[in-house]
Design a protein that fits this description.
Two copies of one chain form a homodimer. In chain A, 33% of the residues lie in helices and 26% in strands. Chain A is of the alpha+beta class and 295 residues long. Chain A folds into two domains: 3-145, PurM-like, N-terminal domain (60s Ribosomal Protein L30, Chain: A, 2-Layer Sandwich), CATH 3.30.1330.10; 160-294, PurM-like C-terminal domain (Phosphoribosyl-aminoimidazole Synthetase, Chain A, domain 2), CATH 3.90.650. In chain A, the strands form three sheets. A five-stranded antiparallel β-sheet of chain A has the order 8-10-7-11-9, with helices on both faces. A four-stranded mixed β-sheet of chain A has the order 3-6-4-5. In chain A, strands 1-2 form a two-stranded antiparallel sheet. In chain A, α2 (64-81) runs parallel beside α3 (101-117) and α2 runs parallel beside α4 (182-191). Chain A is globular and about 60 Å long. In chain A, 54% of the residues are buried. Chains A and B meet through β2, β3, α2, β4 and β5 of A and β2, β3, α2, β4 and β5 of B. β2 of chain A pairs antiparallel with β3 (43-53) of chain B.
Chain lengths: 295, 295
Amino acid sequence: MKLAALGEDRLLAQLLPNLPSNGSVVLGAGDDCAVVEAPGKSKLQLLKTDCVVEGIHFTAKSPPAFVGWKAMARPMSDFAAMSGVPQFALVTMIVPAHKTLDWVKQVYRGLEKAARVFDVTIVGGETSNIKGPAVISVSVTGFVEKHRWVGQSGGKAKDELFVTGRLGGSLRGRHLKFTPRIEESRWLTKHFSIHAMMDLSDGLGADLPRLARASHVGFEVDEVALPLNRGCTTEQAISDGEDYELLFAISPANARALPTRWRKQFSKVPLTRIGRLIPKSKIQNLKWRGYAHFQ
Amino acid sequence: MKLAALGEDRLLAQLLPNLPSNGSVVLGAGDDCAVVEAPGKSKLQLLKTDCVVEGIHFTAKSPPAFVGWKAMARPMSDFAAMSGVPQFALVTMIVPAHKTLDWVKQVYRGLEKAARVFDVTIVGGETSNIKGPAVISVSVTGFVEKHRWVGQSGGKAKDELFVTGRLGGSLRGRHLKFTPRIEESRWLTKHFSIHAMMDLSDGLGADLPRLARASHVGFEVDEVALPLNRGCTTEQAISDGEDYELLFAISPANARALPTRWRKQFSKVPLTRIGRLIPKSKIQNLKWRGYAHFQ
């Protein structure tokens, strides 16, 4: 069935009744705003929006359930980057009339699956027509305990740099199926003092300089140490992007016990020391420009 | 300057440093998530997302500052519908490479103006490319005191129905410049007990049946009483849509003092009694179908 034959009310009625809810949702999708219980004063509220665009972040041939998964997983990866807990999501589906109802339902299935896996409730759903590519925009709110949030700007010279997972080659398929590192991130801030952290969405070569710049330091990378996905070169690991792995900075003293404890906790997700933060210098600036080239 | 010549970092650097902030913002746009103080436990959190799409909600010829105003004002109108206070906004601009930097900046100017007027802080800004029409998606979070929030479902038979402002003809230009009725809505719930409320985005003929359905009641409208914009017919007032005026239900006893007090408070915004809610009946169902026709 083509969307052109359905009004927005009927489309939303098809999509929304299946949404799971939870105890903090006073009023979910359907009224003017979603209404949820406010987080307590010992927590900070986190907000993030992101979108996936047909022809940019997925293609007309991408399996729609994976498109939905990716649309939800991207903002969640930013929650992981801050060691936050995502709670509520708002979804806007902007879809041309020639798409089928089945396509939209499959996308929603992917959105819901990612939401369920990470204990997030979809509390709002909007749809709009477009004479062009489909767009799925997802906004997520949640919280982080005041003493646990990690930004990009807290890195210090001499901190060691680690990345989770492996890098490169994401566009061969992993970019539609990746797992936001929320569990890993929450474990890290529970047991260690993490100075700075971010998720790698644009590639290490673009993202690490951002973390260094935000922290007012330079960096050195041991390129030989980079954890590569199968069949990938070092250059691909640096520049491909869409890895959605965590990059973080931790003091050398704090880092000592990390690899062993990590392996015990997450036997299937590698953790690799890839370099360190250093004082700003001219050498670092040259290096930085070298990386910028890969963008 | 065409966007194609700018990367996302440089585009965001052009857009974001001008954003105003306020005391509750711990970390605004630029890091992985926005971080804000959590609202207290006596309040409920409200969340709303909405979008405007080129070719649907505005045209390539619409003044971009008005496009930005409309993109921000639409979700705010939903806050008005719930008597909520909007606080934080996340903006996603999805823009084809042939648009100019000036166009994007003007859109942002409109977004910022609407945010400033209603005391909202833009805490996140994403951009994406698209091979198609521009899309601006805005998510807003805020709060409402637990005893003041108004949904669509609280209407009771015999309640009187009021609308603010005038209806019809919005597409001649008002749809780009409307004022979300937040001030009016906050005043209403401060001084009166409002049973049900919504903002009129799809037209009275589509929206009033929604409120009635949510409240499990029917409705009668005195069509002669409808407040018409200049040059509009009754049919236009019922079916044009994009009025962004408030429709609300209030008990007859509570309604008695309302018109006089309203005129004292809001001398420039008309308030009109347009009908009442009634028990569900066959007559009402016919009427409902009659309205549905106008959609």
